Amino acid sequence: DDELFERAAKFREKAESLGLEVFQTHGRIKGFRGDAEEDADILENARRDLIVAKALGAPVCVMHGVATGRVGADADPDWVRDLNFDMFNKILVFAKQYGVKVATETLGDALDGQVCDFFGSCHEFIPSYDRIASVGDNAQYFTTCMDVGHTNKAMRFHGNPTPAEFIRRLGKRLGILHLHDNNGMTDQHCFPHTGTIDWEDVLNALDEVGYQGPYNLELNLTTFGKPLMQDTMSFGVKVMRNMLREHYGE
Hints:
Elements: H1 2-17, E1 25-26, H2 36-56, E2 60-63, H3 68-71, H4 77-98, E3 101-105, E4 109-110, E5 115-116, H5 122-133, E6 142-147, H6 148-154, H7 163-170, E7 174-178, H8 199-208, H9 229-248
Parallel strand pairs: 1-2, 2-3, 3-6, 6-7
Antiparallel strand pairs: 4-5
């Protein structure tokens, strides 16, 4: 643990020397699937993710919930709900120990786009969050991450809302963002305004729920090739700043 913390702390020092602040990390992306040995490994990796987040000074670590792609589309719904509840309650023990919040991320489709991910449905995601947050002091260490790209893909299933409407339904539950665009079918992680998301509505929704956090892009920086990753990142920042400037008139 000490070695892991010290290594991550060096990255924090480097970031600070560049004038950068780490405001979130992305931890374990595999949720429990009901295999005791594998789930124990996932939990241990989540614990280590939280050590790294603490060392980096990040207040929030994003983690995926139980996913249809791992448990199957025919899994019993109550079992999936209980498995997700159990997983996050166990992870939150470590979140409290290390003083880092965990954010559960909105999901999209699964099984090569054949079905909506179980927690890609807003009708499952929000009740699941509320159930976990209602236990003890969990709400102090548990929040949500709105991934607008995932939610844009989930729209074609079960009457799921647009990303903007999902934000409105999350309300004060919303903690952080993953902002990127796509064609509604594939997780492309494109620049805003290059897909089908209504970005003005997204920004309006964020205003309506009183969102005050960072506007975090989650882009595929290798879209134009690895040699242009730096340029791609810089352009993404310009796009985001221009969107906010136009929206707020500043």
